[in-house]
Each structure stands twice: as C-alpha cells, then as structure tokens.
Design brief:
By secondary structure, the protein is an alpha+beta fold. The chain is built from seven helices and eleven strands.
Length: about 210
C-alpha cells in the first residue's frame, strides 16, 4: 500500500554520497525533505539539486534536512555531484542516496509503472520530526520542481503545527491566516490577540500569530 498523509515514514539504511546513513538517525529532531530523481546525469535533476544546494540557509533556518535519492550507484553519484557543483555554482553537502535495488523507492511509492517501471518519478516528501508524512508532491520526469513552493509549504506546515490556523490560497510568510473552524468566534480574541476579521461565519482571518 502506498504512503498517505499522516503515515509514519518508513525507516531505512542506505548507501549515500556521504556514507551509510540510518534515516531516522539522520533526521533526528529535524524536519526532512526527501525527494527522488529519475536518474543521474539528467538535465532537469541537475538544476533541481543545484537549486536545493543554493537554498541551504533557507532550509537550515527552518530546521530542515535534505535527502535526495536516485536509483543509480555511488560511482555515478560522485561524478554527477562534481558536474552539479561545476555547472550550478554550488556545493552539494547533503546525502544523495544510491537506491540501486529500489527498496527505498518502492517503500515510498516513488516508482509509478505507467510512467516508468524502472525509474522513479519526481516524488517529494516533507516529513515532520515525529516521522510523519506531512506532504507529498509528485511531478513527471519532464517537469522540474518549484523549490520556492517547497519552502512555502514548510512555512505553512510549521506554522499550522503550532497554532489553530490554516493558510489560504497563495499564502506567503507574514500574510494573514485563516482561523481554524474548531475555534469558536467568541474565543478568537483570547487565542489571537492581534485581532481578526470575519468575511463569513466560516471564513475568519487573523494576522500570522508568530509575527
């Protein structure tokens, strides 16, 4: 059965470009972005890994660790990482998993047979410190991921994990958020002292509470 939101992310031990890791040990008490690539030396993946490395400080300040995966082996990984660093002007310092036997890819449902029965699609998982799957995004091999959207989703997930709010369409850090329906209108002042506005009884906004 494929993973669903709220499921516990499977643990695994893997060979990576930075040595053998145990996923749970690597994650520790951090959030994790785990994402797959169809194969090494592919042009779109090269730009994606470069974009991820360039956002290192953004991930660090959000307490997020990054972990990438490809079904190719370590020798290929090493050469490809050199190419990424050279062409994208970055330094890859996060692990790139060599999943040659596809055990991890299959455990996470990264192989979609109607797209390819041998290569992973562009799967991305955001996993919380309690090892729960909080978000899954899947792109076809032909379309590169939007990592600004990944950061936006992380901001939303971390905010809504702490407060009884949700984030509306196209929300960005610092903008108003939606008060959860579980909060009665008469209780909003006590929980959100910055104030609120009612558009409809079920649609109530308040300033981002941690700003």
């Amino acid at each position: 059965m494929s993973l669903r939101l709220g499921d516990t992310a499977p643990n695994f031990t893997a060979q990576t470009s930075l040595g053998v890791i145990d996923f749970y040990d690597y994650a520790g008490d951090s959030w994790v972005v785990l994402f797959s690539h169809p194969a090494d030396y592919t042009p779109v993946c090269t730009t994606e890994l470069g974009a991820t490395a360039a956002l290192k400080e953004e991930f660090v300040k959000r307490n997020v660790k990054v972990l990438a995966l490809s079904v190719d082996g370590l020798v290929k990984h090493e050469g490809w990482i050199q190419d990424i660093n050279e062409t994208q002007g970055v330094e890859i310092d996060f692990p790139l998993i060599a999943d040659e036997n596809k055990e991890i890819s299959n455990a996470y449902g990264m192989i979609h047979p109607n797209a390819s029965d041998t290569l992973t699609v562009r799967s991305l998982f955001i996993i919380s410190p309690d090892k729960k799957v909080k978000l899954m995004i899947t792109y076809p091999a032909s379309t590169g991921r939007n990592f600004q959207e990944v950061l936006r989703v992380i901001d939303s997930l971390q905010l809504t994990a702490k407060y009884s709010v949700a984030t509306p369409a196209d929300w960005k850090e610092g903008e108003d958020v939606v008060v959860a329906n579980s909060i009665k209108t008469e209780d909003i002042d006590a929980k959100f002292p910055k104030g609120y506005r009612i558009v409809k009884p079920y649609l109530r906004f308040t300033p981002q509470p941690d700003k």
